[in-house]
Amino acid sequence: MRKRLASAWRRHSVGEFFRLAFRNIALWLREKVWPSPPPPPDPFDTLYGTDTATSRAVGSLDYNSPNDRYAVCYLPSPVESVTRAIDGLGIDPARFSFIDYGSGKGRVLLLAGGYPFKEVVGLELAPELHAVALANIARFPAHLKRAGAIVSLCRDAVAHELPDSDLVCYFFNPFDAPIMMQVAERLAAHHARTGHRVIVIYLFPRHRTAFERRGFRVLRHDDPGVLILST
Q1: Which pTM does this prediction carry?
Q2: Which among 54, 44, 61, 59 is positioned nearest to 75, based on CA atoms?
Q3: Which residues of 141-173 are buried (b: 16+ CB within 10 A; e: fewer)?
Q4: Does 90 share its domain with 30?
Q5: Are 71 and 125 in contact (CB under 8 A)?
Q6: pLDDT tens digits, residue range 204-222?
Q7: Distance CA 118, CA 94 (A)
Q8: What residues make up the domain containing 17?
């Protein structure tokens, strides 16, 4: 609780902090009186023995970055949405590196690792989620891994050095607009400098203008909640 209060104090104004505090106290009391039933087993985790399904509030996690104020909660990506998006790109994965921005516990890393990408890289700011992702990668059946490598890095997304490659970049609203704009600018600069193609898979795109203002064009938006853009 102390950890969550300290995180909320850094991230919000005084008025917002007290509104959130009262709301969370009310939710906590309601849960004590009328506890929610346990969620059903997650099919993905049940099948592979992984731990990717349980969400985490941003205030419950420790960070070591000034950009933690722009972090958002961890939610697992829908398996079907991810696989349909990758299948629908119409690319040769062997030409591309796959980067998951805000990779959390690594579910998307494992899904992307089932395709023959050059490499699959996850960028996660929270050390606790990164540690879970490493365990999940180690636990995932080796015969299902087709990518050149599957790696989780505990690293600020803005500081990551992009590989000299075409890129598929995945976003499930991992951070707020200030960081999203910086990342979009770095990806656009990568394309301008190297000529490499950059494809963006963006689930429930709250900050799509960050990419559109930097010249990314919409390839598809037919799957509900899934936007695909490209340089």
Answers
A1: 0.82
A2: 54
A3: eeeebebeebbbebbbbbeeebbebbbbbbbbb
A4: no
A5: yes
A6: 999 999 999 999 999 988 7
A7: 5
A8: 1-38
